[in-house]
Structures are given as C-alpha cells and as structure tokens.
Design goal:
single chain; mainly alpha; two-stranded antiparallel ribbon; 4 strands; binds protoporphyrin IX containing FE
Length: 180
C-alpha cells in the first residue's frame, strides 16, 4: 500500500498492473472484433488475430503476480467506509474478474493447442502447437465456451466500470483515487 497525502492507496505495482491489464483486455477485445473485417488468408487478418492471442497471454502472465499481491497485502480502506452489501458486491465482482483473467486466456490457449494451431506473428512461430493429434471438434467446443465467457464479461466489466464511476461521482468516496 502507498498513500495520497495521508490517505492509503493501492501500491504502485498493483495500480500499474491493474491499468496494464485493462489496456491488454481492451486490445484483446478490439482485435477479435476487428480481424473479421479483413479477407481470410490475408497477413493483416492473421496478425490482428495474433495480437488477440498475445494480448490475452500477457493478461495471463500479469494475473499471477496480481493474485499473489492480492493475498499477501490487505486492501487500502475506502473513505467513507462502505456498507456491508456494497462491500460484498465489490468483493464478488473482483473475484469474478480475477477468475475471468485466469480462465479466459487459458481457454483460448487450450483452443489453439487442441486444434493443433501455433501462435504466429509476422510468420514467426511464437508458441508452437504441442499436440500431435489435433481434435478440431473439441477445439471448436472450447472456443465456443471461450466466446460465451467473452460475451458475459462485456457485462461484468461494464458493471465494474459503472461501479467505479458511481463511487467517484455518485458516492464521492476515494475508491477510484486509490487506484490512480
Ligand atoms: C483476456 C483475454 C481474452 C479475451 C477477453 C478473449 C475474448 C475473445 C472473444 C470475445 C472471442 C470471440 C468469440 C466469438 O466471436 O465467438 C474470442 C475468440 C477467440 N480467442 Fe480469445 N480472448 C482472450 C484470450 C485469448 C488467448 C490467450 C487466446 C489464445 C492464445 C485466444 C484465442 C481465441 C481464439 C482461437 C478465438 C476464435 C477466433 C476465431 O473466430 O477464429 N483468446 N476471444
Ligand atoms: C478490463 C477491464 C478491467 C478489469 C479486468 C479490472 C479488474 C479489476 C480487479 C480484478 C480489481 C480488484 C483489484 C484487487 O483488489 O486486487 C479491480 C479494482 C478496481 N478497478 Fe478495475 N478492472 C478493469 C477496468 C477498470 C476501469 C476502466 C476502471 C475505472 C473506470 C476500474 C476501476 C477500478 C477500481 C477503482 C478498483 C478498486 C476497487 C476497490 O478497491 O474496491 N477498473 N479491477
């Protein structure tokens, strides 16, 4: 934990990793929505899809130290303090977000591995496929689950952002300032 004036806030490492993750998730969503604009088989389409994979894998790398810090250190207190239900709702949303940051990239990576597809960027293999007998049907089912979770989390992330704005502009507490 560090402090704004005398007020405790999240440590710099936790703040940087939070906003870095936000940008990476944004990039992953942007890439997956934009790659279909380009013709099948084109290099630009393949590279935008690779950006989706790489942004997602970077999210996975960041979530591990984040979880470690989360459990080693306490949360900076919110001023004025929250009621029991608002506190519980916040904790539940954060747990769901952490689960998403862990499970979603793993499902994406498993989709590619089971389908026997490597991750390539500009023709360079960054992550080879380690599976000798690809199972396209299973890969497709995992991809569908990955897609469904991706759609659900548009809403959960939206709720999280609305909550942050409500704390700052509605309730006028220091929840958001602790993360800036
Ligand atoms: C936070 C990380 C991630 C998010 C939010 C995310 C989200 C999504 C979403 C929303 C889709 C579209 C599904 C659809 O339209 O049905 C998708 C597709 C996909 N994602 Fe991810 N994903 C992430 C990470 C990854 C990673 C790390 C990989 C692989 C290394 C991956 C592989 C895929 C694949 C193969 C598809 C299907 C693409 C296609 O239609 O050909 N994703 N992802
Ligand atoms: C992809 C988007 C985002 C994800 C996945 C995400 C994830 C998370 C997670 C997991 C936490 C819990 C941190 C911890 O306790 O260790 C958190 C906290 C927080 N996030 Fe986000 N976040 C996202 C975007 C945003 C945005 C855009 C804002 C601001 C508008 C924001 C504001 C906050 C604030 C203020 C906290 C601290 C909440 C508290 O301590 O009660 N987040 N976020």
């Amino acid at each position: 934990m560090s402090a704004i004036g005398s007020r405790p806030r999240y440590a710099a490492s936790r703040r940087w990793m939070h906003w870095g993750t936000f940008l990476l998730v944004l990039l992953a969503y942007l890439a997956i929505n934009v790659f279909t604009w380009f013709p099948r088989g084109s290099a630009v389409r393949a590279n935008i899809l690779a950006a989706h994979f790489l942004a997602g894998l970077a999210v996975l790398l960041l979530v591990l130290p984040r979880l470690m810090l989360r459990y080693r250190h306490s949360q900076p207190p919110v001023m004025p303090p929250l009621g029991r239900w608002a506190d519980l709702l916040g904790k539940t949303t954060h747990a769901a977000l952490y689960a998403f940051l862990l499970v979603q990239p793993l499902l994406g990576a498993i989709t590619l591995q089971v389908g026997g597809k490597p991750v390539r960027l500009f023709g360079l293999t960054l992550l080879p496929s380690f599976v000798s007998h690809p199972d396209r049907a299973l890969s497709h089912r995992i991809e569908e689950l990955h897609g469904t979770i991706g759609t659900i989390f548009y809403w959960v992330i939206g709720l999280h952002i609305l909550a942050a704005l409500w704390h700052h502009f509605g309730r006028r507490d220091d929840t958001l300032q602790r993360m800036l």
